[in-house]
Amino acid sequence: MDLPFIVATLTRRGLLTPGRPIRVASQLNALRRWGWSLAGELRQAAARDPGRVAVVDEHGAALTYQELLDRSERLARSLRAGLGVRTGDRVGLLCRNHHGLIEAIVAAMLLGADAVLVNTGLSAAQLATVTEEQGLRVLVHDAEFAERVLGLPAELHRVDERRQEELIAGAVPGDRLQPPERDGRTIVLTSGTTGTPKGARRPTPHGFGPLVSIIDRIPLHARDTVMIAAPLFHTWGYAALQVSFALRATVVLHRRFDPAATVAALAAQPCDALFAVPVMLQRLMEVAPPQRRPPLKVVAVSGSALPGNLATAFMDRYGDVLYNLYGSTEVSWASIAGPAELRAAPTTAGRPPHGTRLEILDEAGQPVRDGQVGRIFVGNEMLFEGYTSGAGRESRDGLLDTGDLGRLNPDGLLFVDGRADDMIVSGGENVFPSEVEDLIARLPQVREVAVIGVPDPEYGQRLAAFLALRPGETLDPEAVREYVRHYLARFSVPRDVVFVKYLPRNATGKVLGRELRRYFG
């Protein structure tokens, strides 16, 4: 990435403003010695703005950047002295959004250990598999998960919230920390909607490039107040935390997402930005809007497609502040859609940011024409380093396969048609469930919808639509089918229309297709 672009973007976002020379020097030295990991970003923020509030919880309790760093360092020293954590070990984190999770991640990285971010929605059996496959030495967990960790191996060190506070309080004084021989990696678990999740090794940034790619398109600024509603164990929530620390922002965290509490907090803090997943926006639209619009400049979402007219409806209420980032654990980001693009095309994934290459390729690896569906390949400097199992993903000419299908329109806007393995063949026709989902989601009676493929003895596969209606609303299955038939080809009409109270989702808001398929045995 070219230096003039980096300097110009950092200047626009307020990161190159003058400061006290000794603090600026200390800030740059922290980055030089500790790098651009989360630990390095926390150190640079504490060096430049030690008294600035770093984290605020749902009860209003706050920690400054210096206090957060001190607690993280004390925890690191105790993990090393008391539990024997060393460079290359793996520390599991089974926590909701709160400062204790941040402290544990940073502590692991300060020691050169890998932080394994564990989805809080995993079952006890999945957790046991993850513990074994990732070779965890320590598991830091919230008190609410005490029963879930009971069946894990006896040799695994368990650190609950009370024990974490004891380790911080009892840290050996004077045991200085030095940059480790190797950087600790962040291991993010894939969503696991089809089974046990895989561990994906996230790279450590090597400079300002990744930050600049994001803040060039999403107008976040130094010292903003940012609410992160997306789970921190998710790629998107973790990326929001990294960006926030780089900006020396104040981060607002709630352990659980509650739409009414979120609306209240956005105004009370007050927040400049909100990081969320699309289903959270749907929930925010279901509660009464605030009397005064929060001073939001940015609402950034990622993790799944924006359904129906959610983008325009949300902006009608909260202003043209919505930014949709399409990416994955493996490729980080691929494209970003801003408010103007979402107004024009509410389901678009936008355009690649600076420094990102995106191509739509056919099965032979050749580029397809505009409007033609193909496989989405992406290249940037934050492609993952492979799965912890040793497996990788297909790549072509430096571009990584996202596993998704999509198309570009003549204006260069990307549209994602869904996972390659979600496409079904019904009676010889290729059918994309996401297209049908998006259409049904526009019905005013529908609260949420999922469309999946199920086996069919005559056509091979057929579509089944699962609808959760808004309170007090009714719909007839044949009316739904006739509505789809009016807009789409006959092979896109769902043969089965099932009404459910709600859709089964994992902790990041993705619909669990395997749960829906149980309706068909």
UniProtKB/TrEMBL annotation:
<feature type="domain" description="AMP-dependent synthetase/ligase">
    <location>
        <begin position="43"/>
        <end position="387"/>
    </location>
</feature>
<keyword id="KW-0436">Ligase</keyword>
<dbReference type="InterPro" id="IPR020845">
    <property type="entry name" value="AMP-binding_CS"/>
</dbReference>
<dbReference type="GO" id="GO:0016878">
    <property type="term" value="F:acid-thiol ligase activity"/>
</dbReference>
<dbReference type="Pfam" id="PF00501">
    <property type="entry name" value="AMP-binding"/>
</dbReference>
<feature type="domain" description="AMP-binding enzyme C-terminal">
    <location>
        <begin position="435"/>
        <end position="510"/>
    </location>
</feature>
<protein>
    <submittedName>
        <fullName>Acyl-CoA synthetase (AMP-forming)/AMP-acid ligase II</fullName>
    </submittedName>
</protein>
<dbReference type="InterPro" id="IPR050237">
    <property type="entry name" value="ATP-dep_AMP-bd_enzyme"/>
</dbReference>
<dbReference type="Pfam" id="PF13193">
    <property type="entry name" value="AMP-binding_C"/>
</dbReference>
<feature type="region of interest" description="Disordered">
    <location>
        <begin position="173"/>
        <end position="206"/>
    </location>
</feature>
<dbReference type="InterPro" id="IPR045851">
    <property type="entry name" value="AMP-bd_C_sf"/>
</dbReference>
<dbReference type="InterPro" id="IPR025110">
    <property type="entry name" value="AMP-bd_C"/>
</dbReference>
<comment type="similarity">
    <text>Belongs to the ATP-dependent AMP-binding enzyme family.</text>
</comment>
<dbReference type="InterPro" id="IPR000873">
    <property type="entry name" value="AMP-dep_synth/lig_dom"/>
</dbReference>
<dbReference type="InterPro" id="IPR042099">
    <property type="entry name" value="ANL_N_sf"/>
</dbReference>
